[in-house]
Structures are given as structure tokens and as C-alpha cells.
Amino acid sequence: MSIKLSFFGDFVAIHPQKITMSEELQHILDSSDINVCNFEAPIDGNFKAFDREGPRVKQSPESPMLLMEHGFNVFQLANNHMCDFGEEGCLATIREFKDATIVGAGTFEEAYRVVVKEVNGKKIGFLALVHHEFGVLEGLEDNDCVGTAWVCHNRVEQIISESKKEVDFLFVLPHAGVEEVDAPLPEWRDLYMHFIDCGADGVIGTHPHVPQGWEFYKGKPICYSLGNFYFDAIQSTHPYWNKSLVAQIEIGDTEEISLKITNIFVDNGKIDLDISNETKQHNEEICQLLYNSNAYTEYINTISLKCWKDYQIWLVRGLGAVSAKLGFVESIKSIYCALFRSRAKSLLINVMQCESHRWTILRAQRLLNK
Predict the structure, then answer these.
(1) Where are the alpha helices (DSSP H) in the chain?
(2) Could you give the 3-state DSSP secondary structure of residue 161?
(3) Which of 3, 102, 197, 275 is spaced 20 to 30 Å from 135 by Cα?
């Protein structure tokens, strides 16, 4: 008997009462044995905000129940916003899911644990990981802390290979990449393929907030970014901010793994299937880009140089330096940040630590120094 899993993207709902799901979407949820989504931010409980630069995101305490009532039963908490309101906010969120399965957050051992669900006599394992941003647990010294699992921790390879011996199928759920970019960095592609080499049966990514395409490696599916399942905390002008993918994976009787991608979109709180030719064509173009090495390299190089303009401002503010290239206003802002805002230093550290930021900056610098 086959096993069906459906993976959804980033979810944040400040006003979950406004959400409705179409009958067609609910049918997908009802027909799946396991429904997974990335619960992007902690619930609101008037918890103390973590001292960090950048947006701190929270969502309604009613959001977990809404998702569970619609059939979601696995929740990915390894993401860059889960600790925006400290350990207290993270723990309160974990408690709200009650009997549902959460993965990727908690104490060190809890965060890095492969969580197993049994379906039709088969053990399905999930490991959720996030690139190095606020809240990641780096070492055993974090045993008394609560946070999220780091995608580049030196134990990850061992966790995957050893866990694969205990489960029938293993899916890795990384939360990583450059936001609002339509294709993944080469470094993430290499790492996700390495996860397959280590024993993973599929890699389903989130974080960039827009779809990033998918491919198969050694017969195993890799989805680089599903995009925003529902995200009402922040808005963007990107045309695919409110359009996302549902990765429907079916494990057949002979244990072969198939992937079906369904497009969905959000309009005034309603989540429905997206059957437009425009979206279909966009997906095809992104997937084709991954197989065209010259076009892919050109795209990544262009994006890296474009992103460098923003990173340059972040770095200058973090260092408290003055740059003629940024102009008078930005230079004044950088001095202000250095003198009065300690969070500017956390921004600098984050830019250097986060793999997605660092790899993009290094690529841009190599291009500029040619």
C-alpha cells in the first residue's frame, strides 16, 4: 500500500481567522498520510523579543490549531524566526502542537533528533535544519539552551547516515537560501545532493519565500524552496510572494519515490490551487535553468552582484564605518548604528555567519575583483 506525503512552505498567520482553504486543497490534505509545513514564527505570548537586527516575526496562538484541524501533522520549527522571542516563545510554540509531531527545535538533542512517524508499517523519518542565523544550537555546550538545528553542524552527516539504518525513508527539511531569489545557490545544491549521498530519500527546502525549482538526484527528489504557503506578517512586491508549491511525494508498493508538484496561491486569505499557464511556465523555466550550467551561472552571478549592494550597507552599518560609495545619508546611518544600536553588531555577525549571506558576498567579491 502506497504512502503519500505532502510538503508545504512557510506559514505565518497573524489573523488565521481570515484563512480559508479550497475544497481542492483540502482534498490534497485529506488524501495524504503525512502533511508537513514550516511553521515560520513563534506564537504571540508577549514574550521578550530577542535582541537582533531585522524583523522579528510572531503569529497568532490560534495558528497551530487551525493547521492541525486541516490535517497537518508534522511541523518544521527549524527556521530563522523561531527564536525571535527567545526560548520562552519557542517552548510555548512547541507546547501548542500537543500531540502533533514537531521537528528541528528544542534542546540540543531534541532539535537534532530525527523524528519518526510510522505509516503502513514503514518508518518515515524527518530531520529539520536551518542555516546559521539567530537561535541555532552549535555545540553540546548548548545542552541547557533551547533553539534550532544548524544545517552545517558537523554531526549532520552522521545523523543522516545513522538514522537511515533505523528508518525506511528519511526526508531532510532544510530552511536556507537567499530570500526572494528564484534559484538556489550552487553551494546549497551541492549540500542537498550530499544529504542524498549520506542516505536521505528526499530534501525539501524552505526559506527564500518564493519557489526555487526542483530536480532529481540519484532518483531522489530535491525541492530547493516551496515558497510561502501563507505569510501575512510581511508583504513583498515579488510576483511569487503569495504563490507556492506543494511537493506531493508518493512512496509506491515497490518503494519507488515519485514527486508531483502542485501550485497554490493566496488571495485575500483564500488558499487555492493555481492552474495558470504563467505559473506553470515560470516553474518550467526555473527547473530548466538548473540544467543549463551557463545560464544558471550567469543568473547566480547577476543575483550575487545585485545582492551585494544591500550587503554592503549592512556591513558598513555593522562596522560603524563611513563609505563614500554609500553616500552621506547611509554613512550617517552607519555612524548612528555604531553609537546607539547594539543590534548593528549582531547584524554584522549574522551576515558573516549565515552561509547564504557569506557565499553570496564571496561570489560577488570574486566577480568584482576579476
Answers:
(1) 23-30, 63-69, 86-96, 108-111, 156-163, 186-198, 277-290, 293-319, 327-340, 343-353, 355-368
(2) helix
(3) 197
Amino acid at 73: N
Secondary structure E strands in 67-182: 74-76, 101-103, 105-106, 115-119, 122-130, 136-137, 147-149, 169-175
Please say whether the beta carbons of 271 and 20 come within 8 A: yes
Spatial distance between the Cα atoms of 75 and 64, rounded to a whole number of angstroms? 9
Greater confidence, 19 or 98?
19
Pair 151, 270 in one domain: yes
The model scores a pTM over 0.90: yes
Kind plus residue range of the DSSP H or E element containing 245 = strand 243-251
Domain enclosing residue 183, as ranges: 3-291
Length of the chain: 370
- List all residues 6 or more positions away from 164 whose beta carbon is below 8 Å from its beta carbon: 125, 170, 198, 199, 200
Q: Is the pLDDT of residue 330 over 70?
A: no
In one-letter notation, the amino acid at residue 175 is H
Q: What is the pLDDT of residues 32-80, one digit of tens each?
A: 999 999 999 999 998 988 776 678 899 999 999 999 999 999 999 999 9
